[in-house]
Amino acid sequence: MAWPQIRKKLTWVAAFIGVAISVVWFFDIYRQPQMVARILNIPSPPGSLRVVECESPVTTDVLTTCSVEISPDDFPLLLVGYHFEQIPAKGTSHTLGLPKVGPEFAVDVEFSVQPAEFKHGGFVRVLTDKDRRHAIVDLYIE
After folding, report:
1. Triad 120, 125, 130: Cα angle to 5°
2. Most confident of the ranges 3-12, 16-25, 89-98
3. Model confidence at 9, in pLDDT bands (50, 70, 90)?
4. How far apart are CA 43 and CA 80, in angstroms?
5. What long-range pairs does 53-59 form, CB within 8 A, spacing at least 24?
6. Alpha-carbon distance 66 to 87, whole Å?
7. Facing residues of 67 across strands?
8. What angle do CA 21, 94, 49 make, to 5 degrees?
């Protein structure tokens, strides 16, 4: 096979790979609000929920941390899936031992629960600012 033919085929392969990566990236961003809803055990994400960034390292445990923005009026909808305990918090979203996802903000309160269905331990936490506009949704399952 001549070099021009090989180059043409490589161009098509590279274009196909680029499109495939773009589709996977778009699908991942599209599904993030639904992933946050599953973490919080709510039927669907509130309309104003915007996922800024998520991190899910590959480990033997399930660890997912997402930075979200939401209308303060919709914030209570994040908490209907579990009976969360409300705990005052001091620090920032980047200094409370969490992965540094999304923009840093002052944390005012933590909502925390240890779901019974996490048979070997774990928790779901929502850390939010005073205005309930920015939050970190944090999942840990052993």
Report:
1. 170
2. 89-98
3. low
4. 10
5. 53/101, 53/102, 54/101, 55/99, 55/101, 57/99
6. 19
7. 53, 136
8. 55
In Å, the largest CA–CA distance within the chain is 70
DSSP symbol at 84? P
CA distances from 63 to 10, 55, 101, 122, 137 (A): 38, 8, 13, 10, 11
Q: Could you give the strand order of the β-sheet that contains 50-55, starting from the edge strand earlier in sequence?
A: 50-55, 62-69, 134-141, 122-128, 109-113, 85-88
Distance of CA 16 to the CA centre of its chain: 29
Identity of residue 77: L
How far separated are the first and last CA of the chain, in Å rounded? 54
Q: Copy the structure tokens of residue 12.
A: 């098509």
pTM: 0.77
The position carrying tokens 């480990």 is: 59
Q: Which two tokens stand for residue 15?
A: 């274009």
